[in-house]
Amino acid sequence: MTADALKPEGSAAEQEEAPLVWSARWSLTTRILAVNILAIILLGGGFFYLDTYRSRLVDTRIDVMEHQMARLDEALESARADRRQHLIDDFTRATESRLRFYAADGRLLADSFKTGPATYTLRDPDLQPWKRDAARAMDRGIDWIVGAPSYPDFREPDVDRGQSWPEVAETMKSGEGTTRFRYAPERTPLLSATRVVDLDAPEVMLMTLNARDITKTVRAERFRLAVVVSMVLLASVLLSLFLARTIVRPLRRLARAAVRVRLGRAREVVVPRLPSRRDEIGTLARALSDMTQALRERIDAGEHFAADVTHELKNPIASVRSAIEGLGRVTTEEQRAQLLTIADEDVRRLDRLVSDISEASRVDAQLSRTHFEPVDVGMMIESMLAGRAARAEQGQPSPRLAFARPRKDTTMVMGDGHRLERAIDNIIDNAISFSPAGGLVCISATRLGDEVHIRIDDDGPGIDPEQREAIFRRFHSERPSGEAFGRHSGLGLAIARTIIEGHAGTISARDRDDGRPGASFLITLPAREGSDETA
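^ thats the sequence. predicted structure below, dont judge the formating
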C-alpha cells in the first residue's frame, strides 16, 4: 500500500466545487425545472422555423404568380380580341385570383370580378367565430415572439384607379413589374403582382390572390408543434417534479438530521440510511449515517477518556497531597525521607501519565496529517534494539531480547518511522514487563504476500482469551504481580493500536505458536508496493 492509498482521496483543490453564479440562490427543485423547461424552449424554436417556412411559401407563391402572369400575357397577345375575356375568366378560376387592367392614365379597363364569379371573398373578422379570433390572436402572438416582419393591412380602395394601388403606380412609373404582401382583414396573406402588357395599347395588369392555404398550412403546423410542445412541457414538468421529489425530499431529511446532530439536542439522532436507494443519494445517506455514528463513538470515547484521565490523575495527586500534608506532622528524618520518596514517585507517575495522555490524544490527529515514507521495519527494529542495549542498566536482571532480522528491503512499509517505532517499542515494553528475569522475548519481522508481519513473543503467564481485546483499552490496569504500582500508565497498548490502525494495519494478542507459556502479539502492516517479496 502506498502513501497515497492511506490518504483521503483527492486534494482540496480537486474536491472544490465550481461556484454557482446566477443560480446560487435557486432551490434544487427550481434548477431542475429551469433546466428541463429550457430544453422545451429550445424545442419551441420550431416556431422560428415555421416563420421561415411561411416566408418561403409566400416567396414561392409570388414567383408562381409572376410566371403565371407571363404565360397569360403571351396567351393574350396571341389570342383574338373576342377570346381574351374567356382566357381571363379561365385563368382566374384556375388560379383563384382576381385580375384588373389599368390604362396608362390609371383608368380601370377591366375587372375579372365584373365579368365572372368572384374567386375569393374578404371576410369581416367581426363576423367570424371566436375560434378564428383565437387563431388570429395566436398568429399575432407567435409573430411577435419570433420577430416576424410587420406587413400592412389590405384595404380595397374607395375609388378603383391605378394610382390607388402603390404597386400599380410604381409599375406605371418604372415600367417594371412589382409585388406586394399585405394582410387581409381575417389576417390571411393577400399577395399582389403587376406586369405591363401590350394588347391594343400598353396596360398594367394587376393580379391579387388571397393565399388562405398558406395561413391554413402554417396554422396547422403551428398547432401540431404547439400540441407537441405542450405535451412535452407537461411531461417535463411532471418528471422534473418527480425527480426533484426523489432528490430534494431525502436531502431535506438528511439536512434536518444533520442539523439535529449539530445542535446536539437529542442523544441518539437517527440519520436515515435509505437502504432502498442504490443511487448517489443512498450512498450519501449511508455515508452520513456512518459518519454520524463514527462521530458519536468518537465523542463517547472522548468523554470516557476524559473520565478515565480524571480518575487516573486523582490517585497520584491525592497521594502527593497526603505526603505533603504529612511532612508537617512527622518528627523524624526517616519518616520525612519516606514521605519525600513517595511524593517523588507520585510526581514521576504524574509526569509519565501526562506525557502518555498527551501522546494518546494527539496520535490520531497527527497521523492524519503525516506524510508517509518508505520504512524498512527490519532495520528500524534492529536500530531500536541496539539503542535499548546501550541504555540498559548494568547488573539489573531483565529478560533477553532476540530478533530474527530479515534481509534488507524485504519488510518495507509506507508509514511514519517514528510512530511505528513507538508502537513496537510499547509492545516490547509490555512483553518485557510480563517476562521473568532471564526470560526471552522473541521478535521477528517477515514478508508474507502483500503484508509485513511483526511478531513479539514473551515468556510471561499469557493472556486470558476474555482479556485479549480489553488489554488494548486505555488505562487497562492488569499488571504482573510484584510490579511497583504506577510504573505504567495503562496507555501503551492503546497507543500502539492507534498507531498501527492509523497505518491501515492490525494488532492482536494470542497464544504462542510453539505451545510454550506466554503471549504473542502479531502486528500486520500493508507492504510497500514494489518491494522484494522474498523473506
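The chain is about 50% helix and 15% strand.
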